[in-house]
Design brief:
It is a single chain. It is built from 8 helices and 7 strands; from the N terminus they run E-E-H-E-E-H-E-H-H-E-H-H-E-H-H. The protein is of the alpha+beta class. About 25% of the residues are buried.
């Protein structure tokens, strides 16, 4: 499948999930819509309780960031078709409760606060911890452009490439730079030298009345656009 701008082999994710623990008997990864976004979801069957947070951390060391699932759903059994294959259409939908999120850590620096606020707006999740992973929150290439654009409106510059290279927000915030241009809005006082056109206006004998000035302009229409005039 293609998601987040990358082609992903779902079977590779399944094999890594199964390698985490012998207690996991079956695993299948699928793509589900969540709040209008496509997300990777792992469905698994286990003999014992699996710490989803630890499973997520394990996969972070096994898979590239763009292949990390954002949702983990434990099932009693996987739905099967009459042919004994996994019935993907019968896999349940996901909710925000299935979303893997890090323990909440509040932003501390000015850059972290702005980044978290923008991510909450674009990714539609709140609250977001600075320890959260951009991919786990449902981020993709299109949303990364929106985040960069909104940061620019707030006076910060961030390259889109950095979002994919450093998806953990705490680390990503370190690559934000200020892009604020301060313009002096105070009143300008004092003498100013006349420009050449100003000097011509005041010194030329051709202009009798200095109280106004008319400038003639010749306009020519394009017959291809407006016809003959």
């Amino acid at each position: 499948v293609k998601i987040r701008g990358h082609r992903i082999e779902l079977g590779e994710i399944d094999s890594q999930v199964l390698s985490y623990s012998d207690a996991i008997k079956h695993a299948v990864t699928d793509v589900k819509d969540h709040e209008g976004d496509k997300s990777l979801v792992v469905y698994y069957v286990s003999d014992s309780v699996i710490d989803k947070q630890k499973l997520s951390h394990y996969l972070e060391n096994k898979l590239p960031a763009y292949m990390l699932p954002g949702f983990y759903v434990e099932l009693e059994s996987l739905p099967l078709t009459s042919n004994g294959k996994i019935d993907r259409k019968s896999l349940p939908a996901v909710s925000s409760e299935d979303l893997i999120k890090s323990e909440y850590v509040a932003p501390a620096t000015a850059e972290e606060k702005v980044l978290v606020e923008v991510c909450e707006q674009v990714l539609k999740h709140s609250p977001i911890s600075i320890r959260d992973n951009y991919y786990n929150l449902g981020g993709d290439s299109i949303k990364s452009i929106q985040i960069v654009s909104r940061l620019r409106q707030r006076g910060y510059t961030l390259k889109v490439d950095y979002i994919f290279q450093y998806p953990v927000l705490e680390e990503l915030a370190r690559y934000m730079t200020t892009d604020v241009v301060l313009i002096d809005q105070s009143a300008v006082t004092g003498s100013s030298v006349l420009t050449p056109i100003q000097r011509y206006f005041f010194e030329s004998d051709d202009l009798v009345d200095k109280n106004y000035y008319n400038q003639s302009v010749i306009l020519k229409s394009d017959e291809r656009l407006f016809g003959s005039v």
